[in-house]
Amino acid sequence: MCRGAKAVCRETLRTVGSILTDIAEIKSPQVSPKAIGSKHVIESVQIRIGNLRGGKRKRAKSVTSVTKKRKKTKLAPVLKRNIY
């Protein structure tokens, strides 16, 4: 099983669990179980699309200071001598 399938399975289980808890908690006649399910499925699909596009939170790139940068040592110039 690839990594992507694990993430999809995990997200599906999470979505189904939240659907069932909301249906159990909300017992008003105005809100149907179908509406609760569709709301959660739409949210889940939007989360998956965002993950596929790389919509995760980006970390700020840290700026390295001058002292942390390695300075290149300058090589002494090579003098070519005539061997004759």
Portion of residues within helices: 40-55%
**Structural class based on helices, strands and sheet pairing:** mainly alpha
Unreliable residue stretches:
none
| Oligomeric state of the chains in view | single chain
Radius of gyration: 29 Å
Number of strands: 0
Largest sheet: none
SS strand fraction: under 5%
Kindly report the average pLDDT value: 77
What would the principal axes of the Cα set say about the shape? rod-shaped
N-to-C CA distance: 72 Å
Secondary-structure element order, N to C: HH
Number of helices: 2
Written account of the structure:
It is a single chain. This protein has 84 residues and is an all-alpha fold. It has a domain at 3-52. It is built from two helices and no strands. Helix 1 runs antiparallel to helix 2. The chain is rod-shaped, with a radius of gyration of 29 Å. The model has no long low-confidence stretch (mean pLDDT 77).
Short overview:
This protein is an all-alpha fold and 84 residues long.
Features:
84 residues; mainly alpha; 51% helix
Give the SSE map:
Elements: H1 3-25, H2 33-52
